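can u pls check wat happens w/ 3,4-dihydroxyphenylalanine
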Amino acid sequence: MIAGIQQLENDALAELENAGSQDALLAVKTKYLGRRGLLTGLLRNISQVPAEEKPLFGKRCNEVKVLLENKIEESLLRLSEGAKKQTLTRGKIDVTLPGRGTRPGRIHPVTQIRREICDIFSSFGFSVVEGPEVELDYYNFEALNMPPDHPARDMQDTFYIEEKTVLRTHTSPVQVRVMQQVKPPVRILSPGRVYRRDSDVSHTPMFHQIEGLLVDYDVSFADLKGILTAFLKRVFGDATTLRFRPSFFPFTEPSAEVDIRCVMCAGRGCRVCGHSGWLEILGSGMVDPTVFQNVGYDAEVYSGFAFGLGLERIAMLKYGISDIRLLFENDIRFLRQF
Ligand code: DAH
């Protein structure tokens, strides 16, 4: 049996020597090392080898196997290197042609806006935190003063994962998660994806929001106005005119929606602003005492304001994009412009 291995090794090496092409090499490989190969066959019959010869037999088989594998690998490499050189020297490749180059990508407009807003609020001392996109009903609604059957839930038609688990409809639940974990002062900004059952030129089922929250002693509506005014002037320019309009959100009291003079028509009235001259930019308000109570903050001691805005909307206004869906089609010709 041992002598048989030697014979097999000699034969295989001789055949490799003569194999001048990739196909020939692979044929030798299959003949000896394949599943039905000669060496594989020898090893399979190890049970017929006398017990005292078994260790040596096994060792030799392995040696031959490794040797053949290495030789074949080497020869294959040599062949392909040779082929490459031949192609070059025969002039099939014109090495003087300029390269194809790579086109660098761009930062997506929504990401640009998110970064810009996070930078502005960082300079106001806010830190950026993130929350889960699959959220408990409790954080998305209940803790924000929207109990089951509250009519305000209708404005945010939801994707349910399970009975009490939803894809979050806004970034506001992060307010609650943060307040549960830290004591005031709180100054946070929370960007992220949100989901609603909604789809048209200005709505996609997934979009992005940024939430802001500031809680401390003696925070007043004047602080809200000051911060939001400074912020919007940084985004849309110093000449931006703002309007604070009374509104309602279950988690703020009082609440205000903030509009800016239409950036398209400078207030004269156009299609974008629905001929009102104003663009609705964000929702805001003073944190409702019920929310403070839900997170264990003493509403007699602390006060605060919160706000939330949609990133796509800001990107569309800032860059003059008329259809929100363009932002998610991944057409490079569109994305390259920003
Ligand atoms: N969560 C609200 C929405 O998605 C936006 C909002 C309004 C957030 C007022 C706030 C706020 O923090 O104070 O429509």
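Residues 316 and 322 are 7 Å apart (CA to CA).
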